[in-house]
Design goal:
Blueprint (H helix, E strand, L loop, with lengths): L1 H14 L26 H10 L2 E5 L8 H11 L3 E5 L7 E2 L2 E4 L11 E4 L3 H11 L8 E4 L6 H9 L3 E3 L4 H7 L11
Parallel strand pairs: 1-2, 1-5, 2-4, 5-6, 6-7
Antiparallel strand pairs: 3-4
Length: 184
């Protein structure tokens, strides 16, 4: 399991344009046995994954080799309604999921915004949410993505924030079988 997490983390960082491992506060590489933040309880993550029904994947890809594609496909296979957000794919449908150019182009509000962009770009995504007339339940930043100022801004708007985690990994790790259920 740990090797799979490391693989997923390295892929996420590569897509984000950063081939280095995340750094700790002292500037050293994070211990890969602690690839997760520990700020979120299992109950908190489980509650979020149960409440969420619709997801906008910012930075979604049409390439099956990309983690954003894998995560979107996984979430759809578990019953979530997914919309890809990628200006280069706007107007297309991939795996049955429609794609739009930006969050303002979403046809309906979503419960979760899953960010597959680098840490610096996460701030722009949060700023894109602010003028909308709705708020997501959660903004989820993928493995390797942390932006404390963006998180503080979202939290000030009443939006939950999860950073440096993957909903696909958390869903499986928590034993969730389907929306609202537990694995037997």
């Amino acid at each position: 399991m740990l090797l799979r997490i490391e693989f997923f983390l390295r892929r996420a960082l590569t897509i984000a344009g950063d081939r280095r491992l995340p750094q700790n506060a002292a500037g050293g590489s994070l211990d890969m046995t602690r690839a997760y933040d520990t700020d979120y309880t299992d109950d908190f993550l489980r509650a979020i994954l149960r409440k969420v029904k619709t997801v906008a994947v910012v930075g979604a890809s049409a390439n099956p080799e990309r983690p954003s594609y894998e995560v979107a496909a996984f979430l759809m296979s578990r019953g979530y309604r997914v919309t890809g957000v990628n200006p280069g794919l706007a107007g297309q449908t991939i795996l049955g999921a429609p794609f739009v150019a930006s969050l303002k182009d979403l046809p309906e509000p979503v419960d979760m915004i899953d960010i597959f962009r680098n840490s610096a770009a996460a701030g722009g995504v949060v700023h894109e949410v602010l003028p909308l007339d709705w708020r997501p339940l959660v903004i989820w930043m993928q493995l390797g993505v942390r932006n404390e100022p963006a998180a503080a801004l979202a939290k000030a708007q009443g939006i939950e924030v999860i950073m440096n985690r993957c909903p696909k990994i958390e869903y499986s790790r928590l034993g969730l079988d389907r929306i609202g259920g537990e694995a037997d």
